[in-house]
Design goal:
Shape: elongated
Radius of gyration: 28 Å
Largest sheet: none
Structural class: mainly alpha
Strand content: under 5%
Oligomer: single chain
Helix content: 40-55%
Distance between the termini: 89 Å
Length: about 140
């Protein structure tokens, strides 16, 4: 299967965007500058999350000003938009049977060395030699 350069640059397919777009906040009743280019902004957020680049390095020609993308990401996080999108998409995938809810429990035990903890246990010997804090010679 070959991939074209256009498909590598695309973040969300039209089908994916149609599922996400209705879950985003609308401009209805909103004061201030209206949200525009929602798809471009959301794709910028996804691009940044996928690549791990700093906000300032977002390609401006593809996603607009990085400040706008960051502000929208922060606002949507504060409003719980990302959580609602995640819950809706997970419910949709579960209804289609695309999620395998099998859980694996592992009973492996990893023991730490007795000195590997941050607790002190003065009532238990540690196995090491104790040294006197006084020097061996007396000031005579």
């Amino acid at each position: 299967m070959s991939t074209s350069a256009a498909s590598r640059q695309q973040i969300l397919s039209d089908e994916q965007w149609e599922r996400v777009a209705p879950l985003l906040p609308s401009n209805a009743g909103r004061k201030g500058h209206p949200f525009t280019n929602n798809r471009m902004i959301v794709e910028g957020i996804i691009y940044r999350a996928r690549t791990g680049i700093p906000w300032r390095d977002l390609p401006r020609d593809r996603f607009g000003p990085w400040q706008t993308v960051w502000k929208r990401h922060y606002l949507y996080a504060q409003l719980g938009v990302w959580d609602r999108i995640h819950a809706a998409l997970m419910a949709e995938a579960d209804a289609r049977g695309d999620i395998d809810w099998t859980v694996s429990v592992d009973s492996t035990i990893s023991r730490a060395h007795q000195h590997g903890t941050n607790t002190t246990r003065p009532d238990q010997p540690t196995g090491g030699r104790s040294e006197s804090q006084e020097s061996g010679s007396r000031g005579t």
